[in-house]
Amino acid sequence: MVVPELVRPVEILLVEDNPGDVRLTREALKEAKVINHLSVLKDGVEALAFLRREGRYAEAPRPHLILLDLNLPKKDGREVLAEIKADDKLKRIPVVVLTTSQDEQDVLKTYHLHANCYVTKPVDLEQFITVVKSIEDFWLGIVVLPKNGNHVKREATGESSAEF
């Protein structure tokens, strides 16, 4: 008899300093079709410590998806994005920029830094929830994400290395 693998929640990291947006995101993801676990950090320095599993975050789960605001205290979201995408252990984690900025330069810069998508937060409550649900539907329902702890076999050497 084959025993089904335990269903593990999809790990999502939300980097957001606005408590109202955090609350709305939690509400939208609570009704998600996919079981998820949301970790929330309020600034860029803490987000990078979490992702690198430093200090109190030594046992932090590796997220499958990052929702990143641009305008953060301590370390700007653009800097956080640049550091994520420059790190071999983190660069494959999809980063969705979720911000109020509609500035064309922000859009261009974040895509230049390899953001996976750029979404402008609507001001309207219902539209905000719709946007978060759309992100959830696409990134957790349609896209195939690598599983945590998966290894990629190197063709030339036959070695394997942890990607997440």
Overview of the molecule:
This protein is an alpha/beta fold and 164 residues long. It is built from five helices and seven strands, in the order E-H-E-H-E-H-E-H-E-H-E-E. It has a five-stranded parallel beta sheet, sandwiched between helices. A two-stranded antiparallel ribbon has the order 6-7. The longest helix has 18 residues, at 125-142. The chain is globular and about 35 Å long.
Catalogue the unreliable spans. Answer: 1-5, 149-164
What proportion strand?
15-25%
Give the helix proportion (percent range). Answer: 25-40%
Largest sheet: 5 strands, parallel
- Rg is 16 Å
Number of separate helices: 5
Structural class: alpha/beta
The helix-strand sequence is: EHEHEHEHEHEE
Shape: globular
Total count of strands: 7
End-to-end gap: 31 Å
What is the topology, as strand order, of the major beta sheet?
A: 2-1-3-4-5
What is the average of the pLDDT values?
A: 81
